[in-house]
Fold:
Amino acid sequence: MRALVNQRFTTLAILAVVIAVLPLIFPSSYYFRVASLVWVSALAAIGLNILMGQAGQVSLGHAAFFGIGAYAVAIGPAHLGLPTWAALLIGALLSAALAFLVGRPILRLKGHYLAIATLGLGVLVALVISTESRWTGGPDGMPVARLTLFGWRVTGSDTWYWVTGGLLLIGAWIALNLDETPTGRAFRALHDSEVAAQVVGVDVARFKLQAFVIAAVYASLAGSALAMMNGFINPDQAGFLHSVELVTMVVLGGLGSVVGSIVGAALLVTLPQVLTVFHEYEHLLLGLIIIVSMIFMRSGIVPTLSSLFFQRTRS
Amino acid sequence: MKSPSTLKYMLAASAISLGFSNGALAQDTVKIGSVLSVTGPSSFLGEPEDKTLRIYVDQINAAGGVAGKKIELVIYDDGGDANKARTFATRLIEDDEVIAMVGGTSTGSTMAMVPVFEDAQVPFISLAGAIEVVDPVRKFVFKTPHTDKMACEKIFEDLKKRNLTKIGMISGTDGFGASMRAQCVKVAPNYGMQIVIDETYGPRDSDMTAQLTKIKNTAGLQAVVNPGFGQGPAIVTRNYAQLGMTGTPFYQSHGVASKSFIDLAGAAAEGVRLPAAALLVGDKLPESDPQKKVVTEYKKTYESATKQPVSTFGGHAYDGLFILVEAMKRANSTDPKKIRDEIEKTKGFVGTGGIVTMSATDHLGLDLSAFRMLEIKGGDWNLAESGS
Structure:
């Protein structure tokens, strides 16, 4: 137990140090921008990992919640005159409410059926966003008012680096702690065997729903952060491809691993930037890297590497 | 660890002070940036833009560059993803330190990049269609393609001349179609147009007979307008002919102004009218036309370099690049703010899209005369006789 607490603390401390030290080697604020994108995506991926890695349920429509969070901070100030921070909270509440309402029936489904149902949810939300152009600006998207906190206008890549980095730390802290609570243990019991979990008295439906709602709130907050950072939002962020991207981050980095989600997000965000030097081979190489790491690191990058590392040190 | 970084700061400081004291020591190249959708669903727009920029930058450099400086072109492909476009825009500004940008294939990616260029105060000439790029006017943002509002006005002008006032609309729900539909609905009353039926289709739909049947059966229908781009309009055109509706005049938008539309729609495209730039009918323009020389030369250069038929989309990139280059020549400087001021003073620039005269309140600089009403006849573009 003590070792686990320490491990948790070490993980967080390393993450905090990485966030604090990275800016020292950044030559320009473009790097701040890319890193902020990594932190935002990682936040959404960590949330999805609670659902997929810990509770063992798949969601192929997670970008829907990302989109709800993003459009909340866009629509709130523009159409309803709400302050941005209030819109952010309302977005998170809306996502939680939608996840709660929809989650109950669809989480009864298993495997492919659950995947299809969540996919349907994602497509529906994306469709509403791109057709209700009076509210959302339609397929071309809409501008997002800058976040103002106590008279301080939050702009600039470096400012957003710290804001998103802070959000990620909090998100990672909660996810790491969750693992050791009764809820976290119930999630893992679900993941390993639903029947066994039910036999030992875990309320399967309730915990699945909890994981879904938590994951939705993470995605919603990440979406709000991205929208405020960009000052602009369009329906792509709520679309199917973005959902797949989030799932890829989780699976590539490692199911059930918080650090894995961050590594997965970092790879999927930075690789396209690094690979631009290869021009037309960019997509080919990106696909190749993902395929190769999935073949040789079945359980994801971080779990595979850490088990390798610990085996070495033990022997 | 400490000494190299101190050295770096000292070098940087001395470089900055040198820069202030003597401008002539600056490099002899300038960087122009571009973010285009070379791949993805908008690649039919982005690819000719990409090729055009590369061909002409090489040509300008071979001729000695602009004001003694060679142009270095930095192009990134956003794959049609607005969020990626935004990141590349930051990269162009922060990492590549470009002095100006010609790019932004779609309205979505343009709008995502606008705040970056406004904040950095670097001129951005967009290649996107919708009017919201330049309305309201933003200090550093310009664009070259005609707006969707102008396309509606041109179509309605033509309809009015033909005494047709009751129209049906069938629009794509993609960005282009939705935006143009909204503009058409807005300007229709100015031309006495009455929209008797208003249908839509999804950008990936493969059959629009249901919507067209509904339009066909609408009482009093005199003409049909189809705002959309990509493959949708080609399918609408085919279905239109299959339903035997060709007796009713049919208008497409400037969004289909590439040869591939005629290829896709085949014989069904006969008699379809659309507003488009002079570029498509360069060889049919009278000698007296001021755009004749520019459009025929662009067509020749593009087609001989790429072995592909010219489209108006590449033409927008040509216009953007040369508006910028001429502004750089006039400014005789690489200061983005001075270049911006000169872009705004562009007057009587003859491009492939029309004759451009910008002002502080007009960052597009084209009027309705920039559009020609074309009619497809014999599998080719022809100038339509107005009022016929």
User: Anything to note?
Assistant: The domain at 148-276+371-383 of chain B is CATH 3.40.50.2300 (Rossmann fold). Chain B touches chain A at residues 39, 76-77, 81-84, 86-87, 90-91, 93-95, 106-108, 111-112, 114-115, 119, 130, 132, 173-175, 178-179, 182 (CB under 8 Å). Chain B is about 45% helix and 15% strand.
